[in-house]
């Protein structure tokens, strides 16, 4: 496991919460670039440590469509990939909700 993944895992395990939302995991990952395999490894390590990953699929799916639509629009408008802050502003979602939607999209892309 790469040191950056270990650091994310340690931050998440410091929480006393037995159940972790995708939002909290997305917040912990932040802007780090991690692969699908590393996401799976992170989830497996969290579950092995007794944590449950709380997936609220209906809300994530609603946000996913909005986030992806705005990401495409902003990419065309600015000729570059928008960051989380720009997507949050364009969608009226929190940065955590945007990160969660993007994380969910990356999981779906496996």
Summarize the helices and strands and which ones pair or pack:
Elements: H1 3-14, E1 19-21, H2 22-29, H3 36-48, E2 52-54, H4 57-78, H5 84-91, H6 95-108
Parallel strand pairs: 1-2
How would you describe this structure in keywords?
about 110 residues; mainly alpha; two-stranded parallel ribbon; 2 strands
Structural account:
The longest helix has 22 residues, at 57-78. The protein has 6 helices and 2 strands, in the order H-E-H-H-E-H-H-H. With 110 residues, it is mainly α. The chain is elongated and about 45 Å long. Helix 2 packs across helix 6 (95-108) and helix 4 (57-78) packs across helix 5. It has 2 domains: 3-54; 57-108. The protein has helices at 3-14, 22-29, 36-48, 57-78, 84-91, 95-108, and strands at residues 19-21, 52-54. 21% of the residues are buried. A two-stranded parallel ribbon has the order 1-2.
Overall radius of gyration? 14 Å
**Inertia-based shape:** elongated
Number of helices: 6
Helix-strand category: mainly alpha
- Order of secondary-structure elements: HEHHEHHH
Number of strands: 2
Task: Quote the average pLDDT.
Answer: 87
Number of domains: 2
**Termini gap:** 19 Å
What's the helical proportion of residues?
A: over 70%
Strand content: 5-15%
The strand line-up of the biggest sheet is 1-2
Oligomer: single chain
Low-pLDDT windows of residues:
none
Summarize the biggest pleated sheet.
2 strands, parallel
């Amino acid at each position: 496991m790469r040191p950056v993944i270990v650091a994310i895992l340690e931050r998440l395990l410091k929480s006393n919460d037995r159940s972790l939302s995708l939002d909290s995991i997305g917040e912990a990952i932040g802007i780090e670039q991690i692969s699908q395999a590393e996401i799976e490894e992170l989830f497996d390590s969290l579950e092995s440590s007794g944590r449950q990953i709380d997936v609220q699929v209906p809300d994530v799916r609603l946000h996913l469509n909005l986030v992806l639509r705005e990401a495409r629009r902003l990419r065309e408008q600015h000729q570059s990939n928008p960051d989380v802050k720009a997507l949050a502003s364009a969608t009226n979602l929190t940065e955590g909700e945007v990160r969660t939607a993007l994380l969910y999209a990356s999981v779906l892309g496996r």
